[in-house]
Amino acid sequence: MSEGRSRAFYLLSAVFALYVLFLYGPTITILILSFQGPNGGMTFPMNGVSLHWFYNLWNGIGVPNVMDALVNSLELGLTVTILTVIISVMAGYAFRKKFRGSNALFFTAIASLILPSIVVSLGIALEFQIFNQSITGLGDSLVENYVDIENPTAWTNFLGWVGTTIQDNFSTLMGLFTSGLGAHLTWTLPFGLLIMFAVFNRFNPAYEEAARDLGATPWQTFRHVVLPMILPSLFGVALFGFTLSWDEIARSSQAVGAANTLPLTLRGLTTTVTTPVIYALGTVTTAVSFAVISTAFVGVLIVQARRRRHGSDAGKGTL
Amino acid sequence: MLEDKSRWTPYWQAAPLALVFFVFFLLPLAVTFVVSFWTYTGYSIEPAFVGDNYVTAFDKCFASLPDLCTTFRTYLSTLRFCLLVWLITLVLGFTIAYYLVFEIRSNTVRIVLALLTTIPFWTSNVIRMISWIPLLGRNGLVNQALMGAGIVSEPVDWLLYSPFAVTLSLVHINTVFMIVPILNSMLRIDRSLIEAAYDTGASPWQTIWNVIVPLSKTGIAIGSIFVVTVVMGDFISVGLMGGQQIASAGKVIETQITALQFPIAAANAIVLLAVVLMIVWVMLRLVDIRKEL
Q1: What are the residues whose beta carbons fall under 8 Å from the beta carbon of A213, sequence distance 6 or more?
Q2: Residue A314 confidence (pLDDT)
Q3: If A273 and its partner were Cys, which of A159, A269, A308, B77 is the partner (CB 3.0–4.6 Å)?
Q4: Using CA atoms, how far apart are residues A12 and B110, in angstroms rounded to an integer?
């Protein structure tokens, strides 16, 4: 195996190169086409080069809610990222010990990863519809039983007031940050958990024991010993959390209520918009993804560089 | 005292995870199962215990055999996509993982190339589908090239909004799910086993088939489960790339939800779930995944 490169190497290199072209080619095509001139169409040739379609996009492309969808997706993505990191780290810690139900919890996470998203999405939608019907039903029955009755007391007045309030104000529990957030978490948490498994499988508990022996509380051990060591992996969890949420469509499809996320809006636009403005939106979306991916990688590199520079601070009297 | 307290630590640490999965995964599945026996009116779903939704889901399916009813045809078409995409992603994923592990010598180059194949996973699938339009459309690059070369005189129609486009897009999006687990399995293969195979006179193909494939079995199984379950439930690719003209098990459910026929959609979801679980179960019989996690 040590002689010069075999024929197989060159053949496989060609296959790999073609695969990479297949992988990136289409995306690069729409990146280029999004700079199409004002009179250009959805396909080549380029009819001049301009920022016309980005400008068009910025003005809302005459389609309502595109910018709202972008903001919705950003806010939801950030929330999902933070929750995914916190919940995954906590669960990763938990799984280092044996506890009752750990197997069931693990298989639930795997099931959540592989079961069809449309089923999960529909399930959440049905669950929330039942919540809604129950609350509306409760409001109706409270009004029926306690409003305009003989011999009202403070208590029946209160119940009647609750009923009227529900009737007047309640529409739905479904929303971006209730059912939508939950739907996204069922998708990001399994990835986060698997990453934490990989992290803690390689983690040497001797460091924690040393910290404990030196009198650190569990929180101090986590904050000053464990956290700095697992920080690069947390960038990984955050990367998965944000990008998976930012691009999520199948689980969001039935579960976000009236609000729309960016991928859902994009899917809708494919049937109604026939100008390169949709490519401009695609370019912006991809740019956000790439910004997040690079941030995660740069974060890891910075942590590693700091680590190399500082090395051990043992005996230097710093904390 | 301290011992007693730390005994409960894993429970509160796992609680948020368990809570999320309970409220947004297990309970919804249970609700779907229950609602699949309910009835519905125009604007609400009503508790009941009827089998009507399943009867609707399999409308005249058994009476009309051997002719296939719509539901059976839909599942057959979905399974066909599944098989095709699985085969292509498996061969492609295995080849690429093999190349990265056994043909690339520098570790840094291997990491960079592996990242190159995974980065698109972190970008939007919808955009990756839309990206095919300027290439495969009637006036797209492929048709321009074909006509320019004089191979065809009229634009080829079946490139976009067709079963071909659906397959292409599913392969495009899902090959990464094969590459990563197979790569992971192959990286653990002891190189001396390969040397030993060569030394005892095995040809490269024999080495691949008798040494590398069996040792990558776990990766292949994990990748296969992922690809198959994704394709079985897919309704986004089939919808977008099929021009909303091709049926799939997932798309049927989506259509019924849009028509507010929630209990029927729930019944179909339960059927789909059963089919997917059956496929996964068969795959798990073939390899023990837990052993290698």
Answers
A1: none
A2: 56
A3: A269
A4: 14
Average pLDDT on B98-115 reads 90
- Measured distance CA(B169)–CA(B163) in Å, rounded: 10
Domain boundaries, chain B: 68-292
Mean of the pLDDT values across residues A96-114? 90
Architecture of the CATH domain B68-292: Orthogonal Bundle (1.10)
B25-55 pLDDT, tens per residue? 999 999 999 999 988 877 778 888 888 888 8
* A-B Cβ pairs (cutoff 8 Å, strict): 260
Kind and range of the H or E element at B39? strand B39-40
Whether A155 has its CB under 8 Å from any CB of chain B: the answer is no
Q: How many CB atoms lie within 10 A of CB B63?
A: 9
Tell me if A21 is assigned to some domain.
no
A13 close contact with B: CB closer than 8 A? yes
pLDDT of residue A1: 45
The sign of the CA dihedral A182, A188, A193, A196 is negative
Q: pLDDT tens digit string along A75-97?
A: 999 999 999 999 999 999 899 88
In a domain, A161, yes or no: yes
Domain that residue A143 falls in: 65-275
Measure in Å the smallest separation between the Cα of A36 and chain B Cα atoms.
12
CA distance B23 to A185: 11
User: Could you report the per-residue pLDDT of A271-286, keeping only the tens digit for each?
Assistant: 777 778 888 888 888 8
Identify which of A86, A122, A127 has the shortest CB distance to residue B269: A122
DSSP per-residue letters across B78-113: HHHHHHHHHHHHHHHHHHHHHIIIII---HHHHHHH
For residue A142, what is the domain's CATH number?
Answer: 1.10.3720.10
Domain membership flag for residue A228: yes
Q: Which residues pair with B39 in a beta bridge?
A: B46
Number of domains in chain A: 1
Residues of B in contact with A266 (CB under 8 A): 124, 126-127, 130
- Using DSSP bridges, classify how beta strands B39-40 and B45-46 pair: parallel, antiparallel or unpaired: antiparallel
Instruction: Report ipTM for this prediction.
Output: 0.88
| Domain membership flag for residue A87 | yes
Residue B142, class by beta-carbon neighbours within 10 Å (0-12 exposed, 13-18 middle, 19+ buried)? middle
Scanning every residue of chain B, which has its alpha carbon at the shortest distance from the alpha carbon of A240?
Answer: B122
How confident is residue A184, by pLDDT bands cut at 50, 70 and 90? very high
